[in-house]
Design brief:
The chain is of the alpha/beta class. It has helices at about 30-40, 60-65, 80-90, 110-115, 130-175, 185-200, 215-225, 225-240, 265-285, 315-330, and strands at about 20-25, 45-50, 70-75, 75, 80, 100-105, 120-125, 205-215, 250-255, 255-265, 300-305, 335-340, 345-350.
Length: about 350
């Protein structure tokens, strides 16, 4: 396998410190060659030497010893030296270690094949001591510097990743209401503007639910602001379960009022969502001493429309807000839906869940 085609996998190679000694691994079946090179290497104060005479064990020993350069004999019993070069280059732990091929002859074809296999250098044995030590030092230093650069690059990338995460989290927090965890009013305003433009282009239906806690001011006055904050959180928790975070937007509109933008729903769907929200809040049975039925409830104003070019989001927000006012006026704890018919808004109260409705015979 050519060196440029190698895909490295597995754990990153451990980066040695600056005082790390050069480690030479010689793979050669001739003991006399091994001894001759050992004597050259041990004279150097910053070099260690390891000898392997078995081609079958060469890769395993290279992974264990972690050399900074491998001197690989080209011809060994049972295994072609180039096959070993391929093995080194195919293994994540040895793929980048410099390999100096030791050959008995100066042959251009053999040299070409060695470099194609992934060899870093080609030396005729037995090489001159000064030349061999110079090549070992050059390749080892380049290898160690490359590892250190890679480690520095990994550290930089990790730092960049952490910075991106921090920026993302900061951006997310600037869009959230600190008390309820829903979106804040600023994000709601941006979101509905974007969806409004999209709905104009696609002729899609855009729906808005305005939710207000009934008699919340009285609850705050009698139970205290901490209890009031707890109520706001509980209502927000219910809202969280009903809207689709990846598609819709639920926000604290202000005070005890919430807004939910719904896209891609039919009028019947957003009516059902509004009524389900009202029912689930009532089912919590949160005691409210000043409320008509002794439990905390919400009123919901819902509106939906296909916006026309030239209209603003105010049309939808105002319609939902007026529907909410109608729900309050009609006795609270109910849903009023506004729909635009022939250019005019028509409000209709939804039947309260559990009530019996009658029709004239």
């Amino acid at each position: 396998m050519p060196a440029e085609e190698i895909v490295e996998t597995g754990s990153p190679i451990e980066v040695p410190d600056e005082n790390y000694a050069i480690m030479v691994l010689l793979v050669d079946d001739q003991l006399i060659i091994g001894e001759a090179i050992r004597r050259m290497v041990v004279k150097q104060g910053n070099m260690d030497f390891h000898f392997c005479s078995s081609a079958q064990e060469a890769l395993a020993i290279a992974k264990e010893v972690k050399p900074t350069v491998i001197l690989q004999d080209l011809i060994m019993p049972g295994v072609d030296g180039l096959s070993l070069v391929h093995q080194y280059r195919s293994n994540a732990e040895t793929s980048r270690i410099p390999i100096i091929v030791l050959s008995g002859k100066e042959d251009p074809t053999t040299k070409r094949e060695a470099f194609r296999a992934g060899a870093s250098d080609y030396v005729i044995k037995l090489p001159d001591e000064i030349e061999l030590i110079a090549r070992i030092q050059s390749h080892s230093r380049a290898y160690l510097h490359q590892l250190q650069r890679d480690e520095a690059y990994r550290a930089l990338r990790e730092s960049q990743r952490q910075l991106l995460e921090m920026n993302f989290e900061l951006q997310r927090l600037t869009n959230l209401d600190g008390l309820t965890g829903l979106s804040n009013r600023r994000y709601f305003d941006r979101y509905i503007d974007v969806e409004w433009t999209r709905a104009i282009e696609t002729r899609g239906l855009l729906s808005l639910l305005m939710v207000d806690i009934d008699d919340f001011k009285h609850f705050n006055d009698t139970s205290g602001h901490l209890a009031g904050d707890a109520i706001l959180k509980k209502v927000a928790d219910v809202i969280q379960t009903l809207y689709r975070p990846s598609i819709d937007c639920a926000a604290r509109f202000g005070g005890d009022e919430f807004a939910i933008v719904l896209t891609g729903l039919t009028p019947a769907d957003h009516k059902a969502t509004a009524e389900q929200l009202r029912r689930e809040i009532e089912a919590l049975q949160l005691v409210h001493p000043d409320c008509a039925n002794r439990f905390l409830t919400v009123s919901v104003g819902a509106a939906s429309m296909v916006p026309d070019a030239g209209e603003s989001t105010y049309a939808l927000i105002d319609a939902a807000d007026r529907a909410l006012y109608k729900a309050k006026e009609a006795g609270r704890n109910r849903v009023v839906v506004a729909e635009r018919v022939d250019g005019a808004w028509v409000e209709q109260e939804q039947p309260i869940y559990g009530e019996q409705t009658t029709t004239d015979a």
